[in-house]
TrEMBL record:
PANTHER family assigned to the protein according to its UniProt record, in alphabetical order: NADPH-DEPENDENT ALDEHYDE REDUCTASE-LIKE PROTEIN, CHLOROPLASTIC-RELATED, RE15974P
Keywords, ordered alphabetically: Oxidoreductase
Family: Belongs to the short-chain dehydrogenases/reductases (SDR) family.
SUPFAM superfamilies: NAD(P)-binding Rossmann-fold domains
Gene3D superfamilies: NAD(P)-binding Rossmann-like Domain
Protein name in UniProt: SDR family oxidoreductase
One GO molecular-function entry: oxidoreductase activity, acting on CH-OH group of donors
Residues covered by the Ketoreductase domain: 4-210
Entry superkingdom: Bacteria
Amino acid sequence: MSLGTVIVTGASRGIGAATAIGAARRGYDVLVNFAGNRGAAQTVVGAVEEAGAKAVAVQADVSRPEDVKRIFEAADAMAPLVGLVNNAGIVAPAMRVDEMDVERIERILAVNVTGTMLCAIEAVKRMSTRHGGKGGAIVNLSSAAAKLGAPSTYVDYAAAKGAIDSFTVGLALEVAGEGIRVNAVRPGIIATDIHAAGGDPDRAHRIASSLPIPRAGTAEEVANAILWLLSEEASYSTGTILAVTGGRAIAP
């Protein structure tokens, strides 16, 4: 019997794909959101179904309100919504702030911040006891960059993830009495293809030797943290930002 439906945004690859598959293995049905790679999304759907869960793939840009509504309307046709993983995010090629243009900055903020907030709005409308829901959990994806700043790499992305930290805490306090827990995971150096999108595909492995645990983390290790926060095992945790950084010290 399904535990309910979890929406995972940006679920066609990396941490999102690992989370979707892990959720299925734990008994959730999964809505697999993807931006462009339908083939990869269908592969994830196949893995979810192989794990014994139901899945549907929905192409949508989370920065667009009409697309976000389409994601949640598709989820409405599935088992009751119990969780949202706001994983969709982008980086742009490494550069200094004084080299950035407004189009880049607006796009980074639109996907990483606005998209997260738009999805959370729709999730709260369905899960909050204030709106007749039965509660649930939201997990946002932050980044160690939010605390480290990512100078000369992607300060815009770091700033976006700083906003996610603030949003996580604020929303958690707002809906704590309505049956919804809101937490975040803060990955550090993780071996996914997001580094290639930033123009440095070998970045994770190059930096890994400097970490207390001297290797890059895996998408599955981050997914396990996300899935714990989604679960009833984390029933007394809200407003928490859980670092998965290989022991890398960052400011609280």
